Amino acid sequence: MAPRRRLPHRGDGLNLGPGAFGPPGPDDGDPHTALAWAIQPVTYYLAKATAQNLPTNLLKARSAAVGLANTFGLREVRDSLDNLPGALRNLIAERRIAPLDSTARYLDAPTHPVIAQAVRDAVFVENQGLPFALSAVAVLPSIPN
C-alpha cells in the first residue's frame, strides 16, 4: 500500500506548512495580540454580511469563529454562534483584549448602513498598510484599436 499523502494546510497552495500562517501584525509574544488578530476575520465577515450575500458571509463568520474557538480553547465563543457580536464583546472585556480597529468599528456599530465599508477599509489598512481604494485593482474597459 502506498504511503498516505499529506495534504497541505488549508489555503496553503505553496505547501509552506502551518507555521507560515501565524497572525499578521506585530509579534510581541502577547497571547492577546494573537487573539485580537484571530477575531478580525469574524467581525470582517459579519460586517460584510450586512452589505452582501448574507447567508454566505454569515457562514464564513461562523466558520472563522469556530476556528477561533478551537485555536484558543474558547468554548464560550463556540457556544454563542447565534450571537457572535455579544460573544466577542464578552471575550474582549473578560480577557482585556485591545481589539483591532476593524473589530472595534464593527462592534461599536454592527448595524450601521456603511459598516461593511468602514470595516473593510480598516482591515485593508491593518493587513496591507493601504486603504482599500489604494490597494484594489481597477478593471477598465478595453478600447478597440
Q: What does the main sheet amount to?
A: none
Q: In terms of per-residue confidence, which ranges show pLDDT below 50 for 5 or more consecutive residues?
A: 1-12
Give the averaged pLDDT, no decimals: 80
What radius of gyration results from the CA coordinates?
Answer: 18 Å
Share in helix: 55-70%
The quaternary structure here is single chain
Q: List the total number of helices.
A: 7
Short description:
By secondary structure, the protein is mainly alpha-helical.
Structure in words:
It is globular and about 60 Å long. The N and C termini lie far apart (60 Å). The protein is 55% helix and 0% strand. Helix 1 packs antiparallel against helix 2, helix 1 runs antiparallel to helix 4 and helix 5 runs antiparallel to helix 6. The N terminus is likely disordered. The chain has seven helices and no strands. It is mainly alpha-helical.
